[in-house]
Amino acid sequence: SSDVETSAENSLKQLQALESQLNAHLHQPVPSLDPEADATVDTTTAPSQLVQSIAEQYHLHKQQQQLSGKLGSDISPHYQPHTLLSNPPSPADVTLELLLASEAHQGHATSLWNPANARYIHGIRQGTHIISLEVTAAHLRRASKVVQQVCRNAGIVLFVGTRDGQDTAVVRAAQLAKGYHLFERWIPGSITNGQQILGKCRTKVLNHLDEEVPGFEEQLFDRPVLRPDLVVCLNPLENYVLLHECALNQIPTIGVIDTNADPTWVTYPIPANDDSLRCIQVIAGVLGRAGETGQKQRLRHADETGEAVYPRASGLTLPEQLDDGTTAPSEVQSDSNDVLSAKGDIVDERELAAKLEDANNRDGRRHGHRIKASS
């Protein structure tokens, strides 16, 4: 026991020596490790000295916080996939990390592959083809340029995604690019036989600032239906009829091509995982953002020059030149060089019935016959 006490006394002496050395460099002495030192408490400290001691402690705390505040880990904003819909990235912001997090690299089993996709495949892992993300990023940027230029020239862009869960991404992309969307079944013949299927759709006339110009309703009643200038298909395997109709009418197409799809079905393929909803949201958002950039460039050019970037629609006569004596609205009379464009919009059945009734009244007075509207 004497050896233990001797060892404890030696250790206490060493600690006291360290305390004295440490207190010599500090403004506030550290608490003593000697048990007997706690029994003696100085009660004669003045309040002013106590306040000064607290101020010194606070100053020392702020100094230590300034020196060690940058140490340790910094929690940065984590990956938030919901922003792919609310605020999709631009084509310049597409990175390999984003595509990897969206599972764009995962293909199908090697037994289901299409040999035409060999140039897009990086390798094989556990019996599954891995798509090269560098190729995906390059093809996505190329497709974005196509969408941007089509919107820059006031073209009609149709976004199609008919799988479950793709409707939100398709609608959002169409809103950004000021295009049209389809998230239900494609009606066969909507392009090749569009006059019979879409003949009841309303067509309106716009000026170079996308403002509707009234007075052309009678001229547009029997006008041929409009066709899209570009079709973006997010699931080509289920929309072969749509892609075939686009090919027959020389309409360029953009499609997400997985390892089991045929890249020759579309004009501009984007090799990626079409089964990943997050990947589809990334691709649709990037293309929609590219279309938004093109629309802004077109409207800026029209506002600065007062001219449109597309030719005037053929077969339309300004309302002031009609034979029935009608006068044109003020915005049309003030600038007769406004370039007009027709874009399709779904018409209400009651509006269509009212148009047919007006046509019946006019034709009945002129030719003595009426047009019968089918239900």
From TrEMBL:
Keywords for this protein: Ribonucleoprotein, Ribosomal protein
Highest taxon, organism lineage: Eukaryota
Name of the protein in its database record: Ribosomal protein S2
InterPro entries per record: Ribosomal_uS2 (IPR001865), Ribosomal_uS2_bac/mit/plastid (IPR005706), Ribosomal_uS2_flav_dom_sf (IPR023591)
Stated family: Belongs to the universal ribosomal protein uS2 family.
Annotated region described as Disordered, given as residue ranges: 313-344
Compositional bias per record (Polar residues), positions renumbered to this chain: 327-339
Molecular function terms, GO-annotated: structural constituent of ribosome
A Gene Ontology BP annotation from the UniProt entry: translation
GO CC, any one term: mitochondrial small ribosomal subunit
UniProt-listed SUPFAM superfamilies: Ribosomal protein S2
PANTHER family linked: 30S RIBOSOMAL PROTEIN S2 PROKARYOTIC AND ORGANELLAR (PTHR12534), SMALL RIBOSOMAL SUBUNIT PROTEIN US2M (PTHR12534:SF0)
